[in-house]
Amino acid sequence: MKTNILKVITVAVASIVFAVLLLLFCDFAGWMQDFPDLARIQFIPALLRGSIIAVVSLILMTFIFGRLYCSIICPFGILQDIISWFTRRGKKKNRRRLWFRYAKPQNILRYSILALCIISLLSGTTALISHLDPYSNFGRIATNLFRPVAVVLNNIVSNVGEKFHNYDIYHVTLHTHEIVSITFAASVLAAVAVMSLMRGRLFCNTICPVGSLLGLISKYSLFKITINQEHCTGCGLCEKACKAQCISSKNKHVDGSRCVACFNCLDRCRENGVKYRLSIPFHKVPAVARPSIADRAGRRDFLATGVAVAATLPFVHTLAANRHNGIIDETKLTPITPPGSISLEHFKKHCTACHLCITHCPQQILKPAKFNFGFSYLLKPHLVFYEMAYCNYGCTVCSEICPNGAIHRLTSEEKQVTQIGIAEFDQSRCVVFTDNTSCGACSEHCPTQAVHMVDYKDGLTIPHVLPEICIGCGACESICPVIPVKAINVRANEVHKIAEKPVDEEQKAVNQEDLDFGF
Fold first, then answer.
1. Mapping DSSP to helix (H, G, I), strand (E, B) and coil, where does residue 463 land?
2. How many CB atoms lie within 10 A of CB 489?
């Protein structure tokens, strides 16, 4: 069997891209923050970000060379190839394994899904595209499944190192995982694994909207896989090697709309009958048998069922996640979106829940949403403040790492006056009111002094919020000792505002022994 240089180059480039993106999503130490460019050239993120150069470049690459994007740039496609590789198609000793074989295109289904995704985007929501986007699915799988494994391995090495008094590798704890997000990622991985093992690139050529869109272009690409009618003997080796199941050895035809330019067929052909060469666009190809009426009806039923199931998801109860022993935290009925996301509407229009910002948040306060904000916000990140964790005053990591344009870049100075929410104080829950004891932890923790103490009674002071200088960072909420619902909570601004800068006050000497937080 001959080795084709195109195949070698494709595998090498795909391996590098996959390794970099996998490390980017599994990074728990901030090592990969300077390598987000491979995420920015993914098709859907580039489209949502409005990067005309990136989108046009990918379209031109597809028109010239075919769907190389699906083979060497898309990490989800590469992941499917890795899974499919484990089948080791063919014969080995006395054990027979499955070959690929030509399959009729599911055009009605694939283009219906593409149309629904386009309509969804034009209507101003990424609710559908975020669950089908290959890059975002890879991001969720890597973040929710592969990253925890990396952390466990890191902690094992850290524990071993500590026994030998080596502390170069430190112990890591994750706070960002939600069971809904993990379940969703595991379900997608399991489904795609089955499809990859049995049908190769079935997901890419039937479900993936990016694959369907690029397929419309690659059908007329300048360079494509073609079969030389004179040299082809109809042996079927190229068909058996085609993971896109787009080569019909019987009709000696390659479906260019489904070919992902993997070049497996070039290695298999022994008669030099399969070539990757310059071809005249819009040429007429032999007709392939149309799907039967029964097949088309079955696909319509499948699509209708899928849409019906998706339509029921918004009606899942939205308050369950915000209940604490029967008490509802009303400040958490609207998600707190990251600084730089401009507004809830803008964030929902651009975020595809790839979870890259979740991976790189230093404080681990960005978490994937459950059903508590409805289907349109499912799995998208929102800020959750927990003990001693809040949005650092000058941190801008999430705005620097986002590839979709859902979070705009902020300078440290801009971040310090971006008001993502406003703290609300509930006196009836405060320990000063309920226990007649001093506290003041929220005031001491507030970076802008939007929360300050005022006279209450019997020499006690109680918190008071100045909303005009509050930025909603959650420092006060995270330090409040009241549980399960805090006495001071951040209520989200659906449209982010600019807070006033705090007035610098003369620093006073404080006797540490006089500080009493009451706990």
1. strand
2. 23
What is the rounded radius of gyration, in angstroms, for the C-alpha atoms of the chain? 28
For the segment 85-99, the average pLDDT, to the nearest whole number, is 56
* Dihedral sign, Cα of residue 233, residue 237, residue 239, residue 242: negative
**Residue 193: DSSP 8-state:** H
pLDDT class of 454 with cuts at 50, 70, 90? very high
The whole-angstrom separation of Cα 111 and Cα 215 is 10
Q: Where are the domains of the chain?
A: 5-278, 320-514
- pTM higher than the cut 0.90: no
CATH architecture for segment(s) 320-514: 2-Layer Sandwich (3.30)
- The rounded distance, in Å, linking the Cα atoms of 350 and 343 is 11
* Residue-by-residue DSSP string for 324-384: ETTEE-GGGSS--PPTT--BHHHHHHH-----HHHHH-TT--EEE--GGG-GGGTT-EEE-
Kind plus residue range of the DSSP H or E element containing 412: helix 412-415
Dump pLDDT digits (tens) for 271-308: 888 889 897 654 444 444 444 444 444 444 444 444 43
pLDDT at 499 over 80: yes
